[in-house]
Design brief:
Strand 6 and strand 7 form a beta hairpin. With 145 residues, the protein is α+β, with helices and mostly antiparallel strands. Helices cover 30% and strands 34% of the residues.
Length: 145
Amino acid sequence: MKKNSGLTLIESMFVIVILGILGSLAIPRIDPSEGGTAYALTRQIVADMRYARSLAITSAKPYTLKFSPSGGPYTSYAIFQEETQFGDTNPIPSSINCTATADEYEFSYLGSANDNGTVTIAGGGSGYIINLIAATGRAFEEKIE
């Protein structure tokens, strides 16, 4: 008996159906709207606040996350160690409105922040608030309803 290798028509159709189901599950997660951009920016700022706090703790030197231009609405932000910029400047898309209670947030070597604060991000019908707790330096986001 000769054994044929390859896929039968039914096996091929089964693979295509599975790929279609997986693809349909992934589409809602890919959100190119401004609401998705606002959420992505919110998560990035929270991550960068946590990173600045971590740098301050591990180096025993204060690190600051600064928004610009002063007074907002902001167009970019960056992390600084004293007056030296650490890493790249992160742009804020013009379609996103970003404001905060302070232009900069400094993290000490103990991990605490210089002040309680909030950063508000809105765009595309979605809004988020980033809260910063001074005593612990904890940053977290919540959706504006």
